[in-house]
Specification:
Number of domains: 2
Mean pLDDT: 89
CATH superfamily of the largest domain: Glucose Permease (Domain IIA)
CATH topology of the largest domain: Glucose Permease (Domain IIA)
Number of helices: 8
Low-confidence stretches: 2-22, 200-204
Largest sheet: 10 strands, antiparallel
CATH class of the largest domain: Mainly Beta
CATH architecture of the largest domain: Distorted Sandwich
Structural class: alpha+beta
Oligomer: single chain
């Protein structure tokens, strides 16, 4: 009887977890649909292409997750304005929603939905405010790039946003959440958690990634949707590719034998797409090979709007490997 009760509890807990996963997935899908509709609505009003609005919004959402002084977004839109930015530097009322007085005090807040109020936590008002700002610079990429730089004052941020916009434009959807393991599961490979291990070449440093050992020439695949930021030689990583995903995470693939044809800076990639091949390049000038067994060095780096740092990719690799095996069994 006791074993039957335990068995029944496992079934119930499994059902609860499955229901929770499905519910969470449905919630995110609905949010994507609502967000997508909002981007297109503001595009129709301002003529700023929706994929630039989506990229700015997604970038700001990623920044909120890394900067502890920024509050979590309450609605669909992640773009953040401080109360002072919104209502104006000398406005005595930090909760002002009157577009006329906000404009009088040189605040940035605008009424985007036509209800006569400029509300800092209203999705339409916030997105319209940013789109209106970009609109003042123009509608083509070069002018929007200038507007983005004037707003963020950081070249890297501008490049990240333009890269995200390129991905959204390519696939015409926000539902780009699939992942893939970086080498085919039927390949002969092995890996363990090597993040943080000591390395000596070029000076004492820590290992900022996970090494996946495999045979020469095994295909290396993109793990996410994203855009190639770099593709070339690095004296540590040899032939390497760097891909920025839509969560503002930089994925670093190093020690490659070579690149897949057509892969270069600015290439838009998707999960499972071949970007190169396992090799043993690096630890020297361009062309250096064979100083260590063939393997893929896979690293992940997060940007917070000011700087970038590495974090352990091993748990993600294990999860993506497991999910792909489950998918393949279906």
């Amino acid at each position: 009887m006791r074993y039957f009760v335990v068995f029944l509890m496992f079934i119930i807990m499994g059902s609860i977890m499955l229901t929770t996963d499905v519910s969470a997935k449905s919630k995110y899908q609905k949010e994507d649909v609502d967000r997508f509709a909002l981007y297109h609505k503001i595009e129709a009003i301002t003529s700023v292409p929706w994929y630039y609005l989506a990229a700015v919004d997604q970038y700001e959402r990623s920044i909120r997750k890394t900067q502890k002084d920024l509050p979590e977004e309450k609605g669909l839109v992640g773009i953040y304005y401080s109360p002072r930015q919104w209502v104006g530097p000398l406005n005595p009322n930090l909760n002002d929603t009157n577009p006329a007085t906000i404009a009088l005090f040189e605040g940035i807040g605008l009424d985007g939905n036509g209800d006569g109020k400029a509300e800092r936590e209203n999705d339409e008002d916030v997105l319209y405010t940013f789109a209106h700002y970009l609109q003042s610079y123009g509608f083509d990429e070069e002018n929007l790039k200038i507007g983005l730089w004037e707003y963020y004052q950081r070249d890297k941020t501008v490049d990240i946003i333009l890269g995200m916009a390129k991905v959204y434009k390519e696939y015409q959807t926000l539902s780009l959440n699939e992942r893939a393991f970086p080498v085919p599961l039927n390949a002969n490979y092995s890996y363990r958690n090597t993040w943080g291990d000591r390395r000596g070449f070029g000076g004492l440093r820590i290992h900022e990634g996970t090494d996946i050992f495999a045979d020469y020439g095994v295909p290396v695949r993109a793990t996410t949707y994203g855009v190639v930021e770099v593709a070339g030689w690095n004296r540590f990583g040899g032939w390497r590719v760097g891909i920025r995903d839509l969560n503002n995470v930089y994925h670093y693939y190093a020690h490659l034998k070579g690149f897949e044809k057509g892969i270069g800076k600015g290439s838009v990639v998707k999960p499972g797409q071949v970007i190169g091949y396992v090799g043993s390049s690096g630890y020297g000038p361009p062309g250096t090979q064979g100083k260590f067994p063939p393997h893929l060095h896979y690293g992940m780096y997060r940007d917070n709007g000011f700087s970038e740092w590495s974090f352990d990719p091993y748990p993600y690799l294990r999860a993506w490997e497991r999910l792909e095996r489950i998918k393949n069994r279906k």
